[in-house]
Design brief:
The chain is mainly alpha-helical. 46% of the residues lie in helices and 11% in strands.
Length: 76
């Protein structure tokens, strides 16, 4: 049996929501506290998932405001 890390589960949940266009480009994502409560995980788990998505370019941090969905890469 393979156990997936909780932060990877949160990351997959957010990635799926973004891919399904539940959140549009530049739209604010749920706060760390809201998402932690909704998914019954710790705030640190949500923070790590957001950090991974940010490193991959899927989301970006707004200082003192939270995370937003990154726009799709522009085609040249």
């Amino acid at each position: 049996m393979v156990k997936i890390c909780k932060y990877k589960q949160v990351e997959a949940y957010l990635r799926h929501a973004i891919e399904q266009r539940l959140f549009n480009s530049h739209e604010k994502l749920p706060s760390i506290r809201e998402l932690a409560l909704a998914l019954s995980v710790s705030k640190n788990t949500v923070i790590r998932a957001y950090q991974v998505l940010e490193a991959q370019g899927s989301v970006y941090a707004q200082p003192r405001s939270g995370y937003c969905v990154s726009p799709p890469p522009s085609s040249l």
